[in-house]
Specification:
Layout: E1 2-3, E2 11-12, H1 14-34, H2 41-71, H3 74-97, E3 105-106, E4 111-112, H4 113-130
Antiparallel strand pairs: 1-2, 3-4
């Protein structure tokens, strides 16, 4: 558990945080993403997979934000940026899987935007692993 520095006796409960994030994501996703595709078996499992990935990535982003607010190291900062970028990538993938938007391309380079976002995410994670542990 992560300790909240503002009130020394308070702890963040990670399982409750995960349930809260999952509840919010699922309640906001039922009407626009799940219901229109409920009877399309080839799509609903794909959509559910992206919803689960979105929930997990949002949970990891929130936990890493709390860790950064506690430690304020550059390694955790870049890891937090990586998780936030993963949330953005998963949201783009979810919109692509529900066919709400079609694959967005960076036309000059003929690259899908989602792949570019994943490249940025990998760069942030790489920086976080390559940073010196004592660097702030």
């Amino acid at each position: 558990m992560l300790r909240n520095d503002n009130s020394p006796g308070t702890f963040y409960n990670k399982p409750r945080l995960l349930v809260l994030i999952a509840s919010i994501v699922l309640s906001l996703s039922v009407v626009p993403f799940i219901l229109p595709h409920l009877f399309h078996q080839h799509m609903i499992y794909h959509i559910l997979m992206h919803l689960v990935a979105l929930i997990i990535s949002q949970f990891l982003a929130v936990v890493s934000i709390m860790a950064y607010l506690k430690c304020k190291t550059s390694r955790i900062f870049f890891m937090t940026l990586g998780f936030i970028t993963l949330v953005i990538a998963e949201y783009v993938y979810l919109l692509n899987s529900t066919e709400d938007i079609h694959s967005l391309f960076i036309t000059q380079a003929n690259i899908e935007t989602s792949h570019f976002i994943l490249l940025i995410m990998i760069i942030f994670f790489g920086i976080s692993f390559l940073k010196s542990p004592q660097a702030r």
